[in-house]
Amino acid sequence: MKAWLHHPLRVTGRILWLGGELALAALTFVCLCAFRPEDALPSARASWMQRTSCRLLRVFGITSRIVGPVPSNGLLVSNHLGYLDVVVLAACTPAVFVAKREVKYWPVFGWFASLAGTIFVDRERPTQVGQFTGDIETVLNRGVLVILFPEGTSSGGQTVLPFKSSLLEPATRQSHPLTAGLIRYELPDGDVVEEVCYWKDMTFVPHLVNLLSKRAILASVHFTQLCEGSRNRKELARQLHAEIMRLKESQAV
């Protein structure tokens, strides 16, 4: 909690601001989503998520730069650096996310993810993969963008971890657009790997408090649509991974 001692006014102000935005998010959720019919609920939740995320960007002092056509439906596959990825991507376009089951129980973000209609996946139960892919297919068929982080966990961003193919089955049918995305961050007054990325054995609350102490965070998101993906999910995972690595290497140059 050293960040709070170094920037007490900034951190305290942003914590109060964050609490106010979450309270407003709960109120707007009731107005926009609570009484929607089942078939319209994913779209309503995705729109609510986008509105809320745009406000949360200001709380964290995040400025976003977008390169490439922003997807509006189909499946978006992205690298994963931490919980901020969800806020940044959701602010770009209405979407439903796929996340590991543990996220459901995180402070603040778990509640936020549940309201947004996130599809929580228990990777320890491979027998249930069919159910999860069915849930993804249902959302895709309703014309809502689904965002998936196939690395299965977050990283420090030095590379992109190999993709897990189990949840890519809906994409192999080629009935929905398929987009690859790359997220990068810049932190003028700190270390992105240790202070923005949320990985290794980091603890959520201290990481969040430190993040709120930062003056500004720059996020860049690069989108590229795949013209044709493999019908084999393992090959498709390698294809998507190669595309995101290509984006990463081109930005490094």
Question: Would you kindly provide a written description of the structure presented here, covering whatever features stand out?
Answer:
Helices cover 46% and strands 17% of the residues. By secondary structure, the chain is of the alpha/beta class. It has one domain (2-252): Glycerol-3-phosphate (1)-acyltransferase (3-Layer(aba) Sandwich), CATH 3.40.1130. A 7-stranded mixed beta sheet has the order 1-7-6-2-5-3-4, with helices on both faces.
For the largest sheet, list the strands in their spatial order: 1-7-6-2-5-3-4
User: Averaged pLDDT, please?
Assistant: 91
Q: What fraction strand? A: 15-25%
CATH overall fold name? Glycerol-3-phosphate (1)-acyltransferase
Order of helices and strands: HHHEEHEHEHEHEHHEH
Give me the CATH architecture, please. 3-Layer(aba) Sandwich
How much helical structure, as a percent, in the residues? 40-55%
Distance between the termini: 36 Å
The overall strand count is 7
Major sheet summary line: 7 strands, mixed
Q: What's the overall geometry?
A: globular
CATH class: Alpha Beta
List the helices and strands and how they pair.
Elements: H1 2-6, H2 8-32, H3 41-60, E1 62-67, E2 75-78, H4 84-92, E3 95-100, H5 109-115, E4 119-121, H6 129-141, E5 145-148, H7 169-172, E6 178-186, H8 192-195, H9 204-212, E7 217-226, H10 233-252
Parallel strand pairs: 1-7, 2-5, 2-6, 3-4, 3-5
Antiparallel strand pairs: 6-7
